Amino acid sequence: MVPTGHGHSLAMAAAAKGALVSSRWTHAICEMCWIKRAGSRAAHRLERPELERCCGCGFATMSGIYQRADPESMWCGGYHALAGDQAD
Q1: In this structure, are residues 27 and 58 in contact, taking their beta carbons and an 8 Å threshold?
Q2: pTM for the full predicted model
Q3: Cross-strand bridge partners of residue 52
Q4: Alpha-carbon distances of 81 from 3, 16, 87, rounded to whole Å
Q5: Is pLDDT of 62 > 60?
């Protein structure tokens, strides 16, 4: 049975808020920023990365590397590019 009514709406809103907060903590990182932050530790990468803006320095990257970090400690501040925003 699928929940309905006001309680269901609140649950959906809470789930959406959780996803938003979680996504603010996941950051695309370029090679140089990864090395600065992780040293010689190997990075796990996406197989088919897309052009994005590095959350560490703001430059364009296709590294496919992501890092979880406090949004306040990152260049992006946790606000990531929306569709149509082009990385320079």
Answers
A1: no
A2: 0.67
A3: 61
A4: 34, 18, 8
A5: yes
